């Protein structure tokens, strides 16, 4: 066996290195080009549209938006990280109530009486709690293709309002659960809009 000096490569090793570099280029360049094309397509589809704004932000309220839907909640409320995550759940709460949101996607419009997402059993509770959902009432939500309003009850006198809205152009669906005094609930629901 021959010993090599330093880091010199033999002609055969140089040839293998060149061949490996060409192979890596054939693998890497199309991947990079595909990534750039996907980014460009995403920007074109979204049109660079700004995030939606609520229909209004009354005095003492702040805007909340998830990129597709927007609404207003009391300024004193803050994002509750215990119920918010990267998979579509968002929660704002304060001493007088809370609003919990689930954002998802679907290819067809929801119908009356569909089951809310599993996170509804968690919002506002220390452990999942069973609830009853009342009958659907069709309502208008600005920018949404279809929307329904429900009353949610739990044992012990708990009541809340749930809104299920869907936007056909994006396929985005929101379930918004609001447990607050009636005037606050009415304000939150009346400011809801799809972008």
Strand elements, count: 11
Query: What is the mean pLDDT?
Result: 85
- Put simply, the count of helices is 2
- In terms of structural class, how would the helical and strand content be classed? alpha+beta
User: Based on the structure given, which CATH architecture of the largest domain is correct?
Assistant: 3-Layer(aba) Sandwich
Q: What is the gyration radius calculated from CA atoms?
A: 26 Å
Order of helices and strands: HEEEEEEEEEEHE
Taking the sheet with the most strands, its summary is: 8 strands, antiparallel
CATH fold naming of the largest domain? Protein Transport Mog1p, Chain A
Q: State the CATH class of the largest domain.
A: Alpha Beta
Which ranges are low-confidence, i.e. pLDDT below 50, for 5 or more consecutive residues? 40-47
What separation lies between the terminal Cα atoms?
72 Å
As for the number of domains, it is: 2
CATH superfamily of the largest domain: Mog1/PsbP, alpha/beta/alpha sandwich
State the shape. Answer: elongated
